[in-house]
Amino acid sequence: MGFGGVGWWAGALAGLWLGWAPAPASAADLCAPSEATDPQPLHINGSTPFVYKTVGGAALRLHVFRSAGLKPGARVPAVVFFYGGGFYFGDLRRYQTQATHLALRGVATVLADYRVKCRQGSTIMDSIADGASAMQWVRGHAAALGIDPGRIAAAGSSSGALIAIAATLTPALDKPGDATIDPRPNTLILYNPPLDTASPAVVQSLIAQWGQAAADQVRGISPMDHLDRGLPPTIIFQGTADTLVSPAAATDFCRRARALRDQCEVVLYPGAPHGFSEVWMGLQDPAAFPRTEYWAEDTSRRTDEFLTRLGWLAPG
């Protein structure tokens, strides 16, 4: 995965890299030639690519990992991963390690692309609509893919987590293409998710980055304000040193969900920053991310345990 021009670019973009900090530079600077504007891969080792949506001339792909050792006719659970990148950029291979791990354990996994500002000039709501479309495509093609349509999870980091949870709690706002296919996942696996997008700090950041109209739209889909829609079993991985999304919001979100008799669990990682589960960050700045390998392995282990408790994975 290329990250070209790490230097000032990586440092200056610490806020937008995966989250919600105010933009440190102009949109032109943010989208200068680099990973921000590089095209997504057409093929990823071990997976099969599919175009799930073509919009505005952009062919959006998802990459399906499924173990060849599965018996013919098997219908297995699936996890769809949405990468983070502040809706500006991002590489869909960020969770390739986790996707491969689960596929080797018998779960079908999917790395999903979606439109982002630096590649397609899109809006936040465009990205969220694409996420709903990806979930619909996977469910609509479940039989062909050997997937159980009643056991499809959505996983995401930061902006990708908002895409996953928006498909769950506010699907009507996503304007899905086929109203007969439900985009809502059956469970959620969220890494440092922005759960209170109506908070004053988030709204001001969104205004600075995207303008008032976009801020109003994202405020209207704040997950914290839509828990009455019904939350599926959810696990949240959250670092306590995250300065981009609130660790307290994750705890409060699950507390409110449990009060509504929904299953919601938060795993807090002391000292972990935003994006802590993405092991490649330790290669960028080992001093800042000394425990990335442990964090990535532990979140993966806990995901296995979570899916085992749901009956999606066999113990072991």
Which class in CATH terms?
A: Alpha Beta
Please estimate the helix content. Answer: 25-40%
What is the count of structural domains?
Answer: 1
Could you say what the CATH architecture is?
3-Layer(aba) Sandwich
Shape: globular
Describe the structure.
- With 316 residues, the protein is α/β, with parallel strands linked by helices.
- The protein has one domain: Rossmann fold (3-Layer(aba) Sandwich).
- It contains 13 helices and eight strands.
- It has helices at 6-12, 14-18, 27-30, 96-104, 117-120, 124-140, 142-145, 159-169, 200-210, 212-220, 247-259, 281-284, 292-309, and strands at 47-55, 58-65, 76-82, 108-112, 147-157, 187-191, 234-239, 264-269.
- Strands 1-2-4-3-5-6-7-8 form an eight-stranded mixed beta sheet, with helices on both faces.
- Helix 6 packs across helix 8 and helix 9 crosses helix 10.
- Mean pLDDT is 87; it is low at 1-24.
Task: Outline the secondary-structure elements.
Layout: H1 6-12, H2 14-18, H3 27-30, E1 47-55, E2 58-65, E3 76-82, H4 96-104, E4 108-112, H5 117-120, H6 124-140, H7 142-145, E5 147-157, H8 159-169, E6 187-191, H9 200-210, H10 212-220, E7 234-239, H11 247-259, E8 264-269, H12 281-284, H13 292-309
Parallel strand pairs: 3-4, 3-5, 5-6, 6-7, 7-8
Antiparallel strand pairs: 1-2, 2-4
Helix pairs in contact: 6-8, 9-10
